[in-house]
Amino acid sequence: MSTTHHHSDSLAHKLADSGLRATPQRELVYQTILARRDHPTADEIFARVKSAMPSISLATVYNCLETLIDCDLVRAVNFDRAPTRYCPNLRPHAHFHDKETGATHDVDLPDDLLAALKKILPPGYTADAIDITFRGHAARAGDN
Amino acid sequence: MSTTHHHSDSLAHKLADSGLRATPQRELVYQTILARRDHPTADEIFARVKSAMPSISLATVYNCLETLIDCDLVRAVNFDRAPTRYCPNLRPHAHFHDKETGATHDVDLPDDLLAALKKILPPGYTADAIDITFRGHAARAGDN
DNA sequence: AGTGAAAATTGGAATAATTCCAATTTAAGA
DNA sequence: TCTTAAATTGGAATTATTCCAATTTTCACT
């Protein structure tokens, strides 16, 4: 009925498609990533999830994340050597990493640009995935 | 006189520009990265460097790499959570990571594409750097 | 050439994200 | 209900990297 419900269903289906089970831990981790799309780390997800399910372990959070990634429900995002962050945006997009605030924003990637990118590959090379990360800063209110 | 010599000079100059010293360790690490542009890890660089200078330590290799990066002589390249790799190519380029062989190739990035990429940022966002990584595979000789 | 201060190197300990593992718990089907 | 495979759990292990304190080197200035 609710939007949340809708997402749970899609989770259950996607898991079933891969022959996996829809456990409470997996649902919770998924809903938590969906609730605030701020690219949390595994530790942050663990912290958020614990209040609703105090018995969950960090290992399980890692396991769930791996499962969600395998089912293409979540993407892992890496900036340099920093802890991996997790992103529920499945559309093709780049990431903007703000050096000053540490925040991460999604930047939609137009189809034509994606196509242009693939064209710069030498013949014989096939890209299954492209990761694009901008690093910089956003003008703050008051900047001029 | 030699090409190698030329590079050493540029190293010394770039270091001096930043008020840093051109030590034998820094020269050697830099020459080693330049000798085979195969994006080695710190451990690999350490192994290659030890034969010419057995007394060098891994900590020094890390220190030298950090220095070279600060002087813009070398770029750090990260693929997912794998160990950082080091790249002496200073021109704007993307990286192609071959899943099958593990090899990394540079892919030159045309100016117009770079410009097009910067245009997708929302107003107010400024990118100081863009990292682009393709993951995929290269057709092998014999593939059809 | 000699000296002193700052910078660089070194080995080893410390850190931290992630993975591994063996034991227990849970779930789904016969 | 029973069986079996899958999932979860806590803690140990791994590993790239950073930190640290002690030593060595370098450079500028006499």
Written description of the protein model:
Two copies of one chain form a homodimer. By secondary structure, chain A is of the alpha+beta class. Chain A folds into two domains: 3-87, Winged helix-like DNA-binding domain superfamily/Winged helix DNA-binding domain (Arc Repressor Mutant, subunit A, Orthogonal Bundle), CATH 1.10.10.10; 93-136. The first copy, chain A, is built from five helices and five strands; from the N terminus they run ααααββββαβ. Chain A has helices at 3-17, 24-35, 42-50, 58-70, 111-119; strands spanning 75-77, 85-87, 93-98, 104-108, 125-138. In chain A, α2 crosses α3 and α3 packs across α4. Mean pLDDT of chain A is 91; it is low at 1-7. The A-B interface holds A 76, 78, 80-81, 84, 94, 96, 99, 105, 107-110, 113, 116-117, 120-122, 124-139 and B 76, 78, 80-81, 84, 94, 96, 99, 105, 107-110, 113, 116-117, 120-122, 124-139. β5 of chain A pairs antiparallel with β5 (125-138) of chain B, so a sheet runs across the interface. The structure holds a DNA duplex (30 and 30 nucleotides).
